[in-house]
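pls ignore typos typing on phone
magnesium ion + seq
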Amino acid sequence: MNNELEKDIERIVYSQDDIASMVEKLGAELSRDYAGKNPLLIVVLKGSVVMAADLMRSLSINCEIDFMIVSSYAGAKSRGSIDIIQDLRTDIARRDVIIVEDIIDSGVTLFSLKNLLESRSPNSVKICTLLDKPSGRKAEITADYIGGVVGNGFIVGYGLDYNEKYRNLSYIGMLKQSVYSHK
Ligand code: IMP
Ligand code: MG
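k done
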């Protein structure tokens, strides 16, 4: 671990192989549950894009993909509200929708997003996340498909960032504390 990316990593949490097996398992579950349904994968940019690219290739059924950019209101009072920076191009009425996430922490953004999508008359809305961090949960939300469960530490790689960096690591690692206590 000595290039400019890897020098900031304390240890590997999920190797490339670990991630591949998690994604394959999720793909198999979705392929079984959505056979014949042509689900729409919704990817909330940016972190989930890496996971989504692998997940869709692990599906053995027809599916479509669309993207959104959202931002949650900072104020505590407006919990449950999000701003849509870029909306879907797809009409989701009567569609089976799967929100693809990299990691669920507080779940606040996802909670609002799920409510918003449900107001558009889809047939179903489910959540598929690579990782779940249940200790951080503030909103009442559970994923329907979960690759793995993680504890408190701040992890990066495979789409997950710290200040927009480290998304391009091919594994998921624990970021050294010195990186974030430093700046
Ligand atoms: P939340 O569930 O609304 O708190 O937000 C989840 C988002 O927070 C994820 O999509 C990530 O962008 C980010 N996030 C949460 N925990 C981590 C972490 O350990 N590393 C990197 N990003 C994280
Ligand atoms: Mg992020």
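The chain has a mean pLDDT of 93. Residues 22-150 form a domain with the Rossmann fold fold (CATH 3.40.50.2020). more later
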